[in-house]
Structure formats: structure tokens, C-alpha cells
Design a protein that fits this description.
Number of domains: 6
Distance between the termini: 186 Å
Structural class: mainly beta
Number of strands: 52
């Protein structure tokens, strides 16, 4: 007779293992193994160690139990009365089994996932054999999904990905990756990203590892970027009958929608308008009514933005340039700044070109504004003097302004502004500095300061002068004016301890004249002079009579009181 030994694995600890597990349910536990603990006979004979054959059956469903092991139970007289054979499952290791051998149950889909709620029955082929069976768990590699599997949100939002492990034996470790690269520190079951940007869009992968295997899964993050204007529309100018167009360039998550407006009113395609809901707006054969302010609004799933308004200017007909205000004559002193300005009308754009004596000028150095309505010359030199005019041009014509004259006024400077002389006088010079062609004169000469050369001239030159002796007891000063600049000559008085005698020129032979000398006062002396011709000539002093002892005549030869000197 066959002995039937049954045991239940319908216990709570294993229910979660073999029951059907749906999304979000508890993580499955390791698969159980059946371990043959011992085999004995009912009559006390030694244990059978070989040739024991078991046949697996499934009995009726027992009530779930909460223990982790179950021993044999439910012995029946045969294996057919209350049990039915499980054709679709078997032990992976074929009988006969040995004591201590693991009897691994192979699960199949035909068991409907209900194996954990049934009882396994082992029927021996030995009439007196009995079996002691226990359960033993087997580690299970992980399986994982990501919730949500794909995510789309706007730039700046917060992202949360959750790794859901559907089966697998603890301990479990996690590693998140972005585009195949590990994310440092991201080793939890939850991945959180705050303030996401467009550069963070892509594939995120979770890898779950346990001691017996690993599993991966991937979720895709899509970041919606609101539109941003890269190149705004530009203001346009057109003549009546021509076409005008506006263009905008944007970036952001496609698709984009566009809406052009004029003065805040949305435009629609039709008639002369096309592209009202595209990036390019065209207005054909413009009229003066089309002039105004235009803007575009761009939108996508993440937001909207509008361009600054720009103008469309419509001219009736092209007009050639006309000089409204010609440049005026300018007179400045050398070294100063000269500016010519003018204004013109006509269809824009207008171009300008300044000329000197009909020769075109170029910007650089001291000259600027050659291509504008205002010409500037800094640090004016005498060579800048001349006639200046400007050419004004547009698409339909060219005109020239009347010439304006630049006069460079002379600038004068002296090498020194003063000179100092002693009572004896002497000669000196002073330099006049000015540009070529600048005339000047010298005025203010006196009877004791004489200009020797030149007293007038042009350009840079040197003026020479002579200072006569000062026989007086007072100093004196003369003010000369050279090229409108003042030049002061100062001369000191004769020293008090110097005997001075001034010889007065006689008009006749042997005339007597009075001599003056400065020492103790004014005295009279007799001067003997010779003048053979009898005409008025410079005196030739032969001798002097009546001078006190020690007094000599300055700049004269002869005798004094009979003593030569």
C-alpha cells in the first residue's frame, strides 16, 4: 500500500510569494524549496535511504496558516480517492530522492498562481515509509518598474520618479542614471529633481541589485520650454506700392503658434496680408493705411510671449535729398575746435560726405563726422583753413550744400614777457611765435628803448632792441606791445656811489657847457671841447675844469684839473 504524506504551504508567509501580484502590491518573497528531512518506516525498521519515490499531488485548499514551516499531514490510504495528480508541475530533480535532498518545485502558468494556497502531497512507494518535509526559501532576483514610466512637464517644475520592485529578495540597492551616466548620490528608490531645465530632458534609468541579480528599467522625461524670442522683428520703411515684411525668430518646445497684430488688433490672412499666424508676416503693395505699430505673440504648451512693437513707415513717393540748412562760415583761433552742421530732407536713408575744396574727407586724427550731418575738426591748424561742403545722397538723387569757409584766427605768443636792465642799459631780443601769414607790429618804443629790427613782420620772428643808459636817480619802465602781447622793459637807477658826469654836446667851438654828476649834488664845471668844423657834432672832451677831486667823466677821455684820465 502507498503511504501518502501531505503538507500545506498555504501559510501567510508564502501567500504573497505565489499569489498573483498586480501593480502596486507587496514585493514577492523568495520561492520555497521542499527539503526531505528524514524517511522512516512505521514498524521501526531502519530508515530507508535509497529507492524512495514520491509522487506530487495537490489536495483541497486548506485554510491559510501563519507559521513558517509545516510538517506532513492528511495521510490517505491511496493517492487517488481524495487527490488529483498535477500534470503541469513537477519537482525539478527526479526521484528517487535522498534524505536531505532539496525538492525544488517548478512553477508554471497553468497553476494559475495559486500554488501557495494548496497542499502538496508526497506519496511514497514503500508501504511502511514516512517522510518529514520542511520548507526552505530560495533568493529571487529583482524585477523593477518606474512610476510614472514617462513624464512631461514644464521647465521649472519638480520631477519625482519612483522605482517599484515587483519581486526580489532583500537587501536591495538602487542607482539612478541619466542618459547612461550615474547620478551621484541618487541611490534611493525615489528620484526627485527640482526646477528642471530643458537640458535635463531625456532617459532616466534605475538599476536595482540584490545578491542574486539585478534589474533595470527606463523612464523618459520631457521638459516643455516656453517660447523665447531670439531675434525680434525690426522696424520697416517702404514706399507706397512696395512690399513690407516682418520676421521673428524664437526658441522653445514645438509646436509654436504665432499671431501677428497691428496696434493691438490681431491680423488674419487675406487680401494683401499673408503669414499672420506664422513667423513671417508679409504685407503686399503697402498703402499709407498700413503704417503703424506691429507685434507678434508666440505660444506653445508651456507658455506665451510677445515681441516689442515695431513700426512700419510708409512713404508716399521717393524724394531726392534737399538741403534745408547749409553749413555756416566758422572762424576759430588756432588750437580750438571747429564744427560745421547742416540739415537735409528726402526719402530715407540719407548718406553724407563732407569735402574740403571738393576733396573728400575721411574720419581719423582730428576729423570726425565725415559721414554725418555734422563735421568736427579739433585742434584747428592754419592748414585747415578753406572751403567745406557736404554731399547728401539717397536712392533717387544727390545734392551738395553751398561751401562754408573755415577761417583760422592767428594766435600769438612771446618767448618772454619781460626784461631787466641795469642803469648802464644794453641790448636784448624777444621772440614772436605765430603761424605763417600772421602779421604783427611793435609799438610803445620810448626815447630810451629803441627797436633795432624788425618793428613789424609776419610769422615767427625775433625783435631786437637797445636800452639807453639811465643817468637819473630813479628806475624806469617801458611797455612795448608786440603782436598784441605786452613786453615790459625795466631799468634801474644809477648807483648813488658812482660819480657820473654827463657831457652836453656843444654847438660852437670852445663853448662852455654845464656838466652834471651825481654824488653830493649838482655843481658846475667848465668843459673844454674842440669842434674844428664849428658845426654841431658829438663833443670831443679835451679837458674838464672845476671838478672836485676824485670825480671822473663817464665814457670820456682828456684831463681833469690838469690830470689825464
Amino acid at each position: 500500500m502507498k503511504r501518502t504524506h501531505s503538507f500545506s504551504i498555504g501559510i501567510g508567509y508564502w501567500v504573497c510569494l505565489l499569489c498573483i501580484v498586480g501593480p502596486g502590491q507587496a514585493l514577492a518573497q523568495p520561492i520555497p524549496k521542499l527539503v526531505l528531512g528524514s524517511v522512516t518506516s512505521s514498524d521501526g525498521t531502519p530508515p530507508l535511504t535509497n529507492g524512495l519515490v514520491f509522487t506530487a499531488y495537490i489536495s483541497t485548499r486548506p485554510v491559510d496558516q501563519l507559521t513558517q514551516e509545516s510538517t506532513g499531514s492528511g495521510v490517505a490510504s491511496d493517492g487517488t480517492s481524495t487527490f488529483y495528480f498535477v500534470d503541469c508541475s513537477r519537482f525539478t530533480n527526479a526521484p528517487p530522492w535522498q534524505v536531505g535532498e532539496q525538492l525544488v518545485v517548478e512553477m508554471t502558468n497553468s497553476m494559475n498562481g495559486e500554488f501557495a494556497r494548496e497542499s502538496i502531497v508526497l506519496t511514497t512507494n514503500h508501504p511502511q515509509a514516512s517522510a518529514n518535509i520542511r520548507l526552505q526559501s530560495v533568493p529571487v532576483p529583482p524585477q523593477v518598474t518606474i512610476q510614472p514610466p514617462n513624464l512631461t512637464l514644464s521647465q521649472g517644475d519638480t520631477v519625482v520618479f519612483q522605482a517599484v520592485v515587483t519581486t526580489g529578495t532583500s537587501p536591495l540597492s538602487y542607482q539612478w542614471r541619466f542618459m547612461g551616466t550615474n547620478l551621484p548620490g541618487m541611490t534611493d528608490s525615489t528620484l526627485t529633481l527640482t526646477n528642471v531645465q530643458s537640458g535635463q530632458a531625456g532617459a532616466y534609468q534605475i538599476e536595482v541589485t540584490n545578491p542574486v541579480g539585478k534589474a533595470t528599467n527606463t523612464a523618459t522625461l520631457t521638459v516643455l520650454v516656453p517660447p523665447a524670442i531670439l531675434l525680434p522683428p525690426a522696424a520697416q520703411t517702404a514706399v507706397v506700392g512696395a512690399n513690407a515684411s516682418f520676421t521673428v525668430s524664437v526658441t522653445g518646445t514645438p509646436p509654436m503658434s504665432y499671431q501677428w497684430s497691428k496696434g493691438g488688433t490681431p491680423l488674419a490672412d487675406g487680401g494683401r496680408i499673408s503669414g499672420a499666424i506664422t513667423a513671417d508676416l508679409t504685407i503686399a503693395s503697402v498703402t499709407t493705411n498700413d503704417a503703424g505699430s506691429y507685434a507678434v505673440t508666440i505660444a506653445n504648451v508651456a507658455g506665451a510671449t510677445s515681441s516689442p512693437p515695431v513700426s512700419l513707415t510708409v512713404n508716399l513717393v521717393p524724394l531726392p535729398p534737399t538741403i534745408v540748412l547749409s553749413p555756416s562760415n566758422v572762424a576759430v583761433t588756432q588750437g580750438m575746435t571747429a564744427t560745421f552742421s547742416m540739415s537735409a530732407s528726402g526719402t530715407a536713408p540719407l548718406s553724407y560726405l563732407w569735402r574740403k575744396e571738393s576733396a573728400p574727407l575721411t574720419d581719423g586724427g582730428r576729423i570726425s563726422g565725415v559721414a554725418t550731418a555734422a563735421l568736427t575738426i579739433t585742434n584747428v591748424q592754419y592748414s585747415d583753413a578753406g572751403a567745406y561742403s557736404v554731399l547728401v545722397s539717397n536712392a533717387v538723387g544727390t545734392t551738395s550744400s553751398a561751401p562754408a569757409t573755415l577761417t583760422v584766427l592767428c594766435s600769438y605768443a612771446l618767448t618772454t614777457n619781460a626784461a631787466q636792465f641795469g642803469w648802464a642799459g644794453g641790448s636784448g631780443s624777444v621772440g614772436v611765435q605765430t603761424g605763417g601769414g600772421c602779421a604783427w607790429t611793435v609799438t610803445g618804443a620810448t626815447n630810451w628803448v629803441a627797436i633795432t629790427s624788425p618793428s613789424s613782420g609776419s610769422g615767427t620772428s625775433t625783435v631786437a632792441y637797445v636800452v639807453q643808459p639811465n643817468y637819473t636817480t630813479n628806475s624806469r619802465q617801458a611797455l612795448l606791445v608786440l603782436a598784441a602781447k605786452q613786453f615790459t622793459v625795466t631799468q634801474g637807477a644809477a648807483p648813488a656811489d658812482q660819480p657820473i658826469v654827463q657831457v652836453i654836446e656843444p654847438t660852437t667851438t670852445n663853448s662852455f657847457k654845464t656838466l652834471f654828476y651825481r654824488q653830493v649834488g649838482l655843481v658846475e664845471a667848465i668843459v673844454r671841447v674842440a669842434n674844428p668844423s664849428g658845426a654841431a657834432q658829438p663833443a670831443l672832451v679835451l679837458w674838464i675844469e672845476g671838478l672836485p677831486a676824485g670825480v671822473k667823466v663817464w665814457n670820456a677821455t682828456g684831463t681833469s684839473n690838469g690830470v689825464p684820465y
